[in-house]
Design brief:
heterodimer, A: about 110 residues, mainly beta, 11 strands, globular, B: about 110 residues
Chain lengths: ~110, ~110
């Protein structure tokens, strides 16, 4: 596609529910990143994919968070048993490996009530 | 640990010049980035420095000193649309981006 696409743009869910956030990167970009951004803060790294594999998942806060990228393009971030503290904007970015520019999607604003 | 520091907020006047500083301590260095982020929008790329010195791109310039762990973003001829947050990020030895919290720039007429 022309840019990084994230769906949904907004998601409101009840505490304890399961959510999936989708990222469709720019075609051909093998590197994909998930970040979480709280109000007034910079992006917080969650996980980095190189192709289908998670090259670095050290930023995932706990085992309720999981992400997949089965075919090396679209990625899904999965959050189980959501908590109010999970409320944030979840950003996805993609680029060619070691590229000097990462392209961001518009983000998914997750609100846990 | 890894750390990126930049001021939380700055205010400047339309038409003036403003300099946003960034200091960093990271595990390795593979370049420093500046991104602009308008409220409610995704960050957009502004500049990349990997060698010491000044990179100029229109009204925006970015400077890097690797020995001092220091960079600044210089914005000239400020316009109201420049009101945004400016994020400093460093690519570490693992080619991961380490982000600062951002500097909120307020432009007054």
């Amino acid at each position: 596609g022309a840019g990084v696409s994230q769906t949904p743009s907004n998601k409101v869910t009840e505490k304890g529910k399961y959510v999936e956030l989708r990222c469709d990167p720019i075609s051909g970009h093998t590197a994909l990143y998930w970040y979480r951004q709280s109000l007034g803060q910079g992006p917080e790294f969650l996980i980095y994919f190189q192709g289908t594999g998670a090259a670095d998942d050290s930023g995932l806060p706990n085992d309720r968070f999981f992400a997949v990228r089965p075919e090396g393009s679209v990625s899904t971030l999965k959050i189980q048993r959501t908590e109010r503290g999970d409320s944030a904007v979840y950003l996805c970015a993609s680029n060619f490996p070691r590229s000097t520019e990462a392209f961001f999607g518009q983000g998914t604003r997750l609100t846990v009530v | 640990g890894q750390n990126i520091d930049q001021p939380t907020e700055m205010t400047a006047t339309e038409g003036a010049i403003v300099q946003i500083n960034c200091t960093y301590q990271t595990s390795g260095f593979n370049g420093l980035f500046w991104y602009q982020q308008h409220a409610g929008e995704a960050p957009t790329f502004l500049s990349y420095n990997v060698l010491d010195g000044l990179e100029e791109k229109g009204r925006f310039s970015s400077f890097l000193s690797r020995s001092k762990g220091y960079s600044y973003l210089l914005l000239k001829e400020l316009q109201m649309k420049d009101s945004a947050s400016y994020l400093c990020a460093v690519m570490d030895s693992n080619y991961q981006l380490i982000w600062g919290a951002g500097t909120k720039l307020i432009i007054k007429p």
